[in-house]
Amino acid sequence: MRALIDDAWAPGARFDGYALGGLVGEGAMGRVFRATQLETGRAVAIKTLRAEDLEDSGRIARFLREGRAATRIRSPHVVEILEVGRREGAPYLVMELLEGETLEARLREGGPMEVEAACEVLLAVCEGVEAAHRVGVIHRDLKPANVFLTRGVDGALAPKVVDFGISRLMDDQGDVLRTESHALLGTPRYLSPEQTRGSRHASPRSDVYALGAMLYECVTGRPAFPQTNLVALITRIARGELDPPRTLRPTVPEALEAVILRAMAVAPEDRPPTAAALAEALRPFAPPSRALVVTASPPRHPWRVAAAVVVGVMVVLAAVALAAR
Hints:
six-stranded antiparallel beta sheet, single chain, 10 helices
């Protein structure tokens, strides 16, 4: 079986209108190949599971969830999923081919970022995350490795959020859909305190927490929780025991430190309510020409709001009519 799968994904293989190229990268959630769309000649990336993971129904479900989740999101700051398919029993995602490096690689090689540069990146990421929340998708695993730093056609920086493999959907009222999982999902270092109690506690404000944790690392050059012992790490996250950014880098503005610490508050209700609200707080620290406007998610059911307005107007008119009698 494994040999059959490996042959199906050998460079040069053609299927479903694509010609497969070489392996771009491999990780816990699968392998990524360069490919060409035969009809248009467009270079794309194709992501599939590793052969050894095809017997794991949980991994397959998470992989397909990534495709379904990402296709719902429309944002220049979220990787575009073009197609979902199967090849010799192996599910695959066709996505835009990204050129550049991850935020993780940038921090590892370049150290802490200047405040304006860090906020420029986080503003774009906030826009992508807000777009996901707008259609009811919680990422749950935001981290520097899942932010890709690429450039637009105009050469401007265009960070993109990738890997929605453990994302979660909200229902029409904005409530997180029920799940049976009490397991820890996500990279421990960027988990919110509520996620340390199990993945079912994740909410949009959990993503806001991770955004704050990424900004902390961008401006200080190290994670907010550098502990390598898992028990110690989870304990410190749950208690909110972190060094304020200015103790590591005194040049960080006090006002920006306050924004970061609020985003990383232990209690979800103490954080900015949305990624858009966090972006609004970061805008004064970003380059003026790149201070993106991130709009808050609109109501999930605009017709309900309209109906409420109409009812309210009718009540007022009725009251006026009665008063005139």
